């Protein structure tokens, strides 16, 4: 299995975002996790396509994993595709027509993923698993960085891994929330291959040290 580390820029210093992203990538991160919050679907407000485009113009070539915590979801998808998103993931409860939203993401040239809140059942995967590229399991309730990992999500990870393996698919499983060096091995054993970490990575080092993320990323 190929494991990937996806730092969540939600915990980065937004005043120096380009630099922060350069450093985590230079320190071994694989994907940039980009949290989009609308103060409607979730009680927080963050960043949109402009910032994604700015990262591309800054020279970021790594995959950008856009996690949409917005409702409605469809109308912002083409803008994120134009802004350089690689993955676009959305919460099924934020879309009126899940199949249509998956199709829209793909028509716009991006990889599609579904996001499940901790208490959201996985039923929708029955008819969508073969149409998506990634399942994102929230291990905290969405809206904020720095929350505590909810352990029962490991059972969901095992269930999704079984569904993917039973059907012979190559869908990625990503986990988001409360992940860091202390629990990443256990999360990997549950079948997860892509690990979002915000506070564990960006909270780990001093701003002035250019190598500031080396040791925490190496520990993951
Ligand atoms: C929460 C976001 C996460 C968050 C993770 O709604 O989707 O990506 O930034 O942060 P940590 O790793 O600090 O839990
Ligand atoms: Zn996220």
TrEMBL record:
Cofactor: Co(2+); Mn(2+); Zn(2+); Fe(2+)
Record-level GO cellular component terms: cytoplasm
Protein name per the record: Ribulose-phosphate 3-epimerase
Domain of life of the source: Bacteria
Reactions catalysed according to its record: D-ribulose 5-phosphate = D-xylulose 5-phosphate
Gene Ontology MF, one: D-ribulose-phosphate 3-epimerase activity
Record carries keyword rRNA-binding: no
EC number of the protein: 5.1.3.1
CDD domains reported in the protein's UniProt record: RPE
UniProt keyword terms in alphabetical order: Calvin cycle, Carbohydrate metabolism, Cobalt, Isomerase, Manganese, Metal-binding, Zinc
KW Isomerase (keyword) present: yes
Residue sites binding substrate per the record: 8, 67, 143-146, 176-178, 198-199
Enzyme class: isomerase
Annotated family: Belongs to the ribulose-phosphate 3-epimerase family.
Active site, UniProt feature: 35, 176
Cofactor: binding comment: Binds 1 divalent metal cation per subunit.
Record pathway: Carbohydrate degradation
One GO term of the biological process aspect: reductive pentose-phosphate cycle
Function: Catalyzes the reversible epimerization of D-ribulose 5-phosphate to D-xylulose 5-phosphate.
Positions annotated to bind a divalent metal cation: 33, 35, 67, 176
InterPro entries tied to this protein: Aldolase_TIM (IPR013785), Ribul_P_3_epim (IPR026019), Ribul_P_3_epim-like (IPR000056), RibuloseP-bd_barrel (IPR011060)
């Amino acid at each position: 299995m190929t494991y990937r580390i996806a730092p969540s820029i939600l915990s980065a210093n937004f005043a120096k975002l380009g630099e922060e992203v350069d450093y985590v990538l230079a320190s071994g991160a694989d994907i940039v996790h980009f949290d989009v919050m609308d103060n409607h679907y979730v009680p927080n407000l963050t960043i949109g396509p402009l910032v994604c485009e700015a990262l591309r113009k800054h020279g970021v070539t790594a995959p950008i994993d856009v996690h949409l915590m917005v409702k409605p979801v469809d109308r912002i998808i083409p803008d994120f595709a134009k802004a350089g998103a690689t993955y676009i993931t959305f919460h099924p409860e934020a879309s009126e027509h899940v199949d249509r939203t998956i199709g829209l993401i793909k028509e716009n040239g991006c990889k599609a993923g579904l996001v499940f809140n901790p208490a959201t059942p996985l039923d929708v995967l029955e008819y969508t698993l073969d149409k998506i590229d990634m399942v994102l399991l929230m291990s905290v309730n969405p809206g904020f960085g720095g929350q505590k990992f909810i352990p029962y999500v490991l059972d969901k990870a095992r269930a999704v891994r079984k569904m993917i393996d039973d059907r012979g698919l190559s869908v990625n499983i990503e986990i988001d929330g409360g992940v860091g060096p202390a629990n990443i091995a256990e999360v990997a054993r549950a079948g997860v291959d892509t690990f979002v970490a915000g506070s564990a990575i960006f909270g780990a080092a001093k701003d002035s040290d250019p190598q500031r993320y080396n040791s925490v990323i190496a520990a993951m």
